Amino acid sequence: MPGAPRAVSRLPGVTSLASLIKAYDVRGVTPDPFSPAVARAIGAAFAEVVGGPRVVIGQDMRPSGPELVAAFAEGVTSRGVDVVRIGLCSTDGLYHASGALDVPGAMFTASHNPAEYNGIKMCHAGARPVGQDTGLTEIRRLAESYLDDGLPAPAATRGTVSDHEMLAEYAAFLRGLVDLSGLRPLKVVVDAGNGMAGLTAPAVLGEAAGLPALPLDVVPLFFELDGSFPNHEANPLEPANLIDLQAAVVANGADIGLAFDGDADRCFVIDERGAAVSPSAITALVGLREVARERAAGRTPTVIRNLITSAAVPDLLEAAGARVVRTRVGHSFIKAQMAEHDAVFGGEHSAHYYFRDFFFADTGMLAAMHVLAALGEARRADGSGATLSELAEAYEPYVASGEINSRVADVAAARQRVVDAYVTREEAGPVTVDELDGLTVSHWDGQPRWWFNLRASNTEPLLRLNVEAADEDVMEKVRDDVLSLVRQDGEEQP
């Protein structure tokens, strides 16, 4: 069994992994600085800090994955901990394995980052997150010491490595959470972006895992697993990466389009017209389904949402009888709040969706299944099937700017200009202000209704602005006013 973790102080001139190991995960360019030697050291440190008799490891389709996984596994087994490799999978597939097997896990992926990147998302047993306050800081310190001084002497009994295919179990688990078998037939275009949805979508939505056929006509787009991303970046948060899907939905007369990022833990939705449905609207739609299920079981539901999601989310969910908890941006904060409040569901503006029934972890595929179920059940007054645009309209009553980045020379000075204009001047009006995550200024209780959040990036000299208002003219006015303050010294969008 691994020994107790030991603290290692860093001295000038010794190895630092600060550029690789961030607040939530490992992420960097391969093979330099993210090399097999680094993966081996992190694996050994992970085994020491997280412990347990065995660890499950998965990987996405990036070419650097197999070598990094082998090195990480070597580090883990050197500490006497067994390794179970599940091979190619989505990140939520790894979370399922960690939850189903009740063992710690490590997923090798760089999510939506370009091809030259790779990374590791780690979790405790039961898919509980490993972040800077839950083991990642200590993992980094130990890994740095191992790179400087070499790995400790191997455990008396080295761990073993075995392989276990879990795609079919993952698909069956999700099918057991949302029943799609009785829906009206739907045509669905799925853009995998050459990422892991090319493996998981046929298994969950089709028959590739040996499950019965669903009333879904799936039109595949870029299902070939290719970590060089030859068609477009696997980052649906960027509008340019949705163009192919939007065109395919319209060309095929499809009912809906689904776009997944590289490791398929996020899902973006396109309606039948080719228009994007906001993640806030999806949060409200899925949240209402989960709230209704909780209330039917006689329980009072709690839903978590980050502070960038639309004001429509708490409006709709609270009206349905839910308690809505507002939290900071970032999956470690959402997951912590999910567990603390035993929340049935959580949603972020970035299209991460979390489910109590999925080990409090995020899964884009389960969110997609809920949307498909809602669309398949939706009816017009005359009994005919409603379109997704008709269904989504109720969940998008307000107008949002989306996230706008500004590169600034002096983040503090730019932020202070906004504070001076909106908070401290007497004519600013009846606003509420909080600093839960950046600066949030709200005029939602007055007229006209608007709010904005201004957050600094953790890694770059950027300020991120999100604005929402009850109508478009007001949103544009607030957006342009705040941007003029932020960019006063010539700063501009990167």
UniProtKB/TrEMBL annotation:
CDD domains: PMM_PGM
GO BP term, pick one: carbohydrate metabolic process
Keyword GTP-binding (UniProt): no
Keywords: Isomerase, Magnesium, Metal-binding, Phosphoprotein
GO molecular function, one term: metal ion binding
InterPro entries to which the protein is assigned, alphabetical: A-D-PHexomutase_a/b/a-I, A-D-PHexomutase_a/b/a-I/II/III, A-D-PHexomutase_a/b/a-II, A-D-PHexomutase_a/b/a-III, A-D-PHexomutase_C, A-D-PHexomutase_C_sf, Alpha-D-phosphohexomutase_SF
Domain Alpha-D-phosphohexomutase C-terminal span(s) in chain numbering: 403-483
Cofactor or coenzyme needed: Mg(2+)
Top-level taxon of origin: Bacteria
Record's keyword annotation contains Magnesium: yes
A Pfam match: PGM_PMM_I
Domain Alpha-D-phosphohexomutase alpha/beta/alpha: 21-144, 169-274, 285-398
Signal sequence, renumbered to the chain: none
Family: Belongs to the phosphohexose mutase family.
This protein's name: Phosphomannomutase/phosphoglucomutase
Gene (UniProt): manB
